[in-house]
Amino acid sequence: MSIEYDEKGKFYTNVISKITVSSILQTTTHLIRGMVHVRQGERLKDELENSESYIAVTDASVYDANGNAVYTSPFMAVHKKQIVWIMPADEEGGGETG
Q1: Could you tell me where the beta strands, DSSP code E, fall in 51-97?
Q2: 85: CB partners within 8 A, 6+ apart
Q3: Which of 29, 43, 46, 61 is most buried, taking the most CB atoms under 10 A from its CB?
Q4: C-alpha dihedral over 65, 77, 82, 63, to 10 degrees?
Q5: Range with the poorest average pLDDT among 7-11, 40-44, 72-76
Q6: pLDDT band at residue 97 under the 50/70/90 scheme
Q7: 15 versus 40: which is more confidently predicted?
Q8: Mean of pLDDT values over 24-51
Q9: Pick the CATH number of 16-90 from 2.30.30.100, 3.40.30.10, 3.90.1170.20, 3.30.1540.10
Q10: Is 78 exposed, middle or buried (0-12, 13-18, 19+ CB in 10 A)?
């Protein structure tokens, strides 16, 4: 890893800092729960709109239409064209009233 400093002491590196967002992704056939890695200061939407074809999901669990876990993996690359919708898991059920 290389680190460069400018005259004001600001540093630059080739490593991109990302934060993990617990997320739920609906694909055309399955529901995926896991951690999506987003650049600091950006949103899930921004991650979907970048030029990469795949989105990285860690600690992924894949569920079928009946809600049964059919697959788990420490890493999964999901093709963005297969994603129908995505949301942060902490907003799950946020619209419900009781």
Answers
A1: 54-63, 69-79, 83-88
A2: 25, 26
A3: 61
A4: 0
A5: 7-11
A6: very low
A7: 40
A8: 92
A9: 2.30.30.100
A10: buried
Least Cα distance to 13 among 31, 45, 32, 40 occurs for 40
Q: Which two tokens stand for residue 85?
A: 């919708």
pTM above 0.90, yes or no: no
List pLDDT tens digits, range 53-90: 999 999 999 999 999 999 999 999 999 999 999 999 98
Q: Closest Cα to residue 68, out of 18, 31, 39?
A: 31
Cβ(56)–Cβ(37) below 8 Å: yes
The CA-to-CA distance between both ends of the chain, in Å, stands at 51
Locate the domains of the chain by residue range. 16-90
